[in-house]
Amino acid sequence: MNRKFIFLAIFLAVCVNARAIILYDGDNDANTSAPANGAPWGNVVQVYSSAGNITGSAVYLGGGYFITANHVSMNSASAISFNNGSDKHAIDAEYGTIQVSDGVDLKIFKVGGSVVEGIPSVNIGLDIVPNGTEILMIGGGLGRNPDAQYAPPLDAVPWGNSTAKMRWGENKINSVLNVSGDGYEYLSYAVVYTSGAQEESMGDFEAALTFYDSGSAFFYFVDDAWYLGGIATSVKTSGKSTYGTEEFSGLVGEGSDFAIYVLLAAYADEIRGIMTPVPEPSACAFLLGLFAFGFVRCRERK
């Protein structure tokens, strides 16, 4: 593991579940369609309860499989939507959900049928993303409070009651963390919200997470391809996002707010294992029978 990374420990007790993308410039109508850079916008979806209420976000991996945060509320009657709730598609109730690994805030579920036809698979990044790497965040939760006023960079951006909508924004990787608490322990990335006055800021499109963004994604671009690097799980502060002026300092004290994403490279083998299950014993026996038959036929020809 590259020693230039800063590894810190944080207890989830000081964080709250990640809830959609808000932007530094405060415009809830900005970045609500696919970015022009070719990022996998169409792979990120919203998750809905049986009552039709949004509960989080998720990412289509390929082969009918989706990934989201394990704490996102789901049951056999849950559904996903690619278009802000106008096209709900039921999950595979028989398959259910599978937690990626004990203690890791990730789970896999499936949606069958033609709904996923034509949607390309995503590349899961297999390397730790270096600090300072620019990322694209895509989520389907709420925006900022449209009625509240704030004056960046010192005032916090209030979370609001705006309509849940797919939205993208930009940020940078700050640190790699080991998080623990609430029954979870896993490796993650910290993504810090920095004010426009700071050199590290991404400007007006600097993104933060709010309600119902748990399970959403960040992607990064390297070697002419987009990679899925993390799944959102939690944020530092509930009810507001502060674009601060202080450098990230171990998650202690005042300064910038931040988001937590599960570091997918650490769990890529487990994810692949769930997506490529071992054949059932009957299938193995059938394949063994075919092999034996072929062996006998070969001997007969000798």
Description:
Helix content is 10%, strand content 34%. With 302 residues, the protein is mostly beta strands. The strands form four sheets. The chain has a seven-stranded antiparallel sheet with strand order 8-7-4-5-6-10-9, covered by helices on one side. A six-stranded antiparallel beta barrel has the order 12-14-15-20-18-17. The longest helix has 21 residues, at 281-301. The chain starts with 6 loop residues before the first strand and ends with a helix. The relative contact order is 0.22.
Characteristic terms for this protein:
single chain, 302 residues, mainly beta, six-stranded antiparallel barrel, 20 strands, 10% helix, globular, disordered N terminus, disordered C terminus
Give the helices and strands, then pairings:
Layout: E1 7-11, E2 16-17, E3 21-23, E4 44-48, E5 54-62, E6 65-68, E7 79-81, E8 89-90, E9 97-99, E10 107-110, E11 123-124, E12 134-139, E13 157-158, E14 167-181, E15 184-192, E16 207-209, E17 217-222, E18 225-235, E19 240-241, E20 258-263, H1 268-275, H2 281-301
Parallel strand pairs: 1-14, 11-18
Antiparallel strand pairs: 2-18, 3-16, 4-5, 4-7, 5-6, 6-10, 7-8, 9-10, 12-14, 12-17, 13-19, 14-15, 15-20, 17-18, 18-20
